[in-house]
Amino acid sequence: MKVFSKEQIYEGDKLTAERQNITSTELMERAGTQIFNWMHMRMQGAQVPIHVFCGIGNNGGDGLVISRHLVTHGYNVKTYVVNCSDKRSKDFLVNYDRIKNVTKKWPTLLSCTEDFPEIHHDDIIVDAVFGIGLNRPVDSWLKALFMHFRSTKAFTLSIDVPSGLSTDKVPTDPDAVVWAGYTLSFASPKLVFFLPETAKYTVQWEVLDIDLDQEFLYTTETEVDLIGKHEVLPMYIPREKFSHKGQFGHALIIGGSYGKIGAVTLASKAALSAGAGLISAYIPKCGYGVLQTSFPEAMVITDENEELITNIDFKKVEPTVIGFGVGVGTNPKTVSTLEAFLKTNKIPLVIDADGINILSKKKALLQLLPEATVLTPHPKELERLIGKWKDDFDKLKKVKAFSIKHSTIVVIKGANTITVFQDKLYVNTTGNPGLATAGSGDVLTGIITGLISQGYNPLVAAVFGVYLHGKSADIAVEDFGYQSLIASHVINYLGEAFIDLFKQPEQPPQEQEEDKKEDKK
């Protein structure tokens, strides 16, 4: 799914009006009606008090459309206009007149100086105060109003975005933003729904189709793509009947140090479970017995050192891809070894954990990375790599600049892991808090390494690997819960994540019966 910027949404609205020969007012009617339909389908006429707060711009116009339909369908609705300025939009004024024609209870004009309306915790608030176009600080009265919404504990439904939340910056004052229980967003979700500092302003979100111009939707390139099952399914490379292991590459995991051989074990298992044909692990001598015993499918090569990686020499092994860094440590001998290795290596790389920490300490090594090297840092590792950031948008800006400069793919791990390549962001939708556990990052490194091994483009491998990693955790968490999910479970359920790619959604019983009747015919 594409995630459009606010400028692209404005352009889409304009093109839709031109190409469908409709007015902006008619497009607003379409948007507001879709919101009403969503509410009506769920409420079925229930007489819960609904408080619709409308700004005086186009978002407020949407709110007036919603209120008018609620009124004409007999709902218990009160409409308020946040009347803090004289700059009313044309479409707002049209819909202000329309709602006055269907009810004797005209919208209450709030002058931004008086007391707030009484709202109970069992009521519903519809927030249509500001949309995506907000470009000024919220004044003190509106901030107090938004805090009033929150204090009532009433269910709050925001239109397009929670009021006070910009689409391209982090709020400086959390109290100057509506905290929505649900946001209904037009055309596409907004990037702010997925960033750590801004996702908190809406518990859930949903996209409503308002029939924007199809050519615009299909042909417009976006900076951000939202990655779900629909997006990754075309990435999957099917296997032929007479395939053999030699066709799916040889993945090599280099890592481990005394006490941290488990990281290599997890990454190696994940690489093979993701589809690599062969897997080798290059580890210190101390891990030989551990790895050979715990993971018999792996071939093991040991460093001459007992406890550290000090000389990367895999001799007759010809890997397709190398995953480096899990559990490797940052001993000066290991740092020197990595530097010597990078000076001659031409094999695709996936680098994680202490591999990233070494690159952060000796940034000159970044120039030696093969093009499209995949880096998978957690937040602290990322900070060491690119420096501190002011907020999430500044972080993305810095990561994009880093990716462009070094031709790398950066996987920003988090609740919505974001894969960055050049100027493009791929926001993942799978995964859950159970992944906040030791070793889950090692598993992700192994999955991406295993996908590259069998011929996936590094960028596709990163995006697809992040999806599979999260999906496996989503399936596993149903059996183990968040607290008891461990990294090994993610590997064990990876097969089910692959199988899930081809599962069809379950049909409601009525549709199943209709399908059976059609089959009999």
UniProtKB/TrEMBL annotation:
Q: What is this protein called?
A: Bifunctional NAD(P)H-hydrate repair enzyme
Q: Which residues cross the membrane?
A: none
Would I find NAD among this entry's keywords?
yes
Entry EC number(s): 4.2.1.136, 5.1.99.6
Q: What is the lineage of its organism?
A: Bacteria, Pseudomonadati, Bacteroidota, Flavobacteriia, Flavobacteriales
The residue ranges of the YjeF N-terminal domain are: 9-218
Instruction: Return the similarity comment.
Output: Belongs to the NnrE/AIBP family.
For K(+), which residues are the binding ones? 59, 127, 163
What PROSITE patterns does the record tag this protein with?
A: YJEF_C_2, YJEF_C_3, YJEF_N
Designated gene of the protein: nnrD
Its biological function?
Catalyzes the dehydration of the S-form of NAD(P)HX at the expense of ADP, which is converted to AMP. Together with NAD(P)HX epimerase, which catalyzes the epimerization of the S- and R-forms, the enzyme allows the repair of both epimers of NAD(P)HX, a damaged form of NAD(P)H that is a result of enzymatic or heat-dependent hydration.
Positions annotated to bind AMP: 413-417, 441
Q: Which InterPro entries match?
A: Carbohydrate_kinase_pred_CS, CARKD, Nnr, Ribokinase-like, YjeF_N_dom, YjeF_N_dom_sf
Q: Please share the entry's free-text remark on the cofactor.
A: Binds 1 potassium ion per subunit.
Cofactor(s) it depends on:
K(+); Mg(2+)
Q: Which Pfam families match?
A: Carb_kinase, YjeF_N
Q: What does the record note on quaternary structure? A: Homotetramer.
Q: What positions does the domain YjeF C-terminal occupy?
A: 228-501
